[in-house]
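Exercise 3.2. Students should predict the tertiary structure of the chain below and write it as structure tokens, then compare their answer with the key that follows.

Predict this chain's 3D structure.
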Amino acid sequence: MPEMSGAQALVRQLRSEGVDTIFALPGVQIMAAFDALHEAQNDINLVHVRHEQATTYMADGYAKATGKVGVAMAVPGPGALNASAGLGTAFASSSPVLLVSGQIDSGALGKRQGQLHEVEDQLDVFKPITKWNHRVTRVEEIPEAVHEAFRHMRTGRPRPVELEIPPDTLANLGMADIIEPEEYPAASASVDDIARAAKMLSEAQRPAIIAGGGSLIAGAGAELLRVAEMAQAPVMTTQSSKGVISEANPYHTGTNYVAVGPASQIMPDCDVLLAVGTRLLFREPQGKIPRIIHIDADSDEIGKNFPTELGIVADAKVAMGQLAERLKVTGVSKPSRADEIAGYKRATADSVQELAPHQVGIIRSMRQQLDDDAIVIAGVTNIGYWSNVAYEVRQPRSYVTSGYFGTLGYAFPTALGVKVAAPDKQVVALCGDGGFMYSPQEFSTAVRYGINTVAVVFNNSAFGASRWDQTHRYDGRFIGTDLANPDFMKLADSFGAVGIRTNSDGFGDALGEALRADAPVLLEVEVPVEMPPFQIVE
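Answer key:
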């Protein structure tokens, strides 16, 4: 058992688990870890940011783009609390993110002395937004704790974890063994459950499939499409699963997002619904609720929102592969529903076009400019909202959202993490002027590291959704929703980035110019305050 510092044990175990990038901001309680990263800089890339929020947002973007664990590091107290927004986003969207947080000296823990950055019971703060969290106070325990963190992120439903280590533990010497990484087999479904599911789908007259984020995380697209073809089932997705199968595929009918989407067309006549990797959080269908087969890696989600006839706790890819094979063996044969499915797709697209013609025009011009594998980060802004239903995603892991957390300000720093993970792909962040101003300082990070993202800032000089709400629900009593913005072109120039200003008519050409620039770009687009999909005015 070799002797090493706690910081060396941390960094070496992270490297053993396959970590090649860490997003961090330095501070006194974690400087020993930074020194160990200096020693390991040929193996691990350190990206230091300008605000702790960006550490976990970037780690989340990295995880969503790759499927690998994203790692962030921050000091305790204000640093860790700043990072909590990104950790909450990762929790809401089932993303494997590790936050390594500093602590006060181990001898001062629990004494409430008012040590620098002290938060009593900091572990408790993170429990609601982590799958697992833990404090280490001995050097020899660090490798096992890191390994356990990765086990939690790589088994069952992936979600973030937090590990905190006091500064004296990082600095102290001790005897520690680095642990080899493990492979964790994905959970399969029982033969009997698969047989029941196949029978229900075979006997169904009008089956349908709804695929959630769990299907995308598991990489279940090919298996899901095989089942759809054999069962002649139209496929709906959620905002978190866009791209699990190409939205250009004829079986894909559209994305359900609040009051918009194909569910209103499909669900009234559906007799069997196959729900894969989704919590089934959508409006209750009119009429009779169909028989539901619910497949999810998280047993807590099955039957939570709708009564489930058959619940299967399993990995989506494995279970859908099993189901496809069972349907093949049984020789299920159904008449084509191609015309009907195409009708659902047209009806959904027509509805979105009618509701938001201006937004759809912008989104379609964006689609024309982007490569099939370009990655779009849909921010908490009007065009981001409508992109959930109007933007055609053609490949997995090429569309990123904040899940149910709806995190204002997450899009730009998350895009930086995505671009670090996928440097050869186009990466575009859809930001509102309100959300973008949470983290404009991260253009410093983008320029410093050559992270050439395009931050599209839709400028309406307002918190637009709230402004719309005040207009239509509160009789125009405006307060607290207007914004005084900087000159975004000067802002971009001050960081050494490229600034481009346009309006919605010139958006397509301006985006093309931004994508050709060999630099980080701030693309400002002047837009009006418009209706978001969750405030549809009848």
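Discussion points: The mean pLDDT is 95. The chain has 21 helices and 20 strands.
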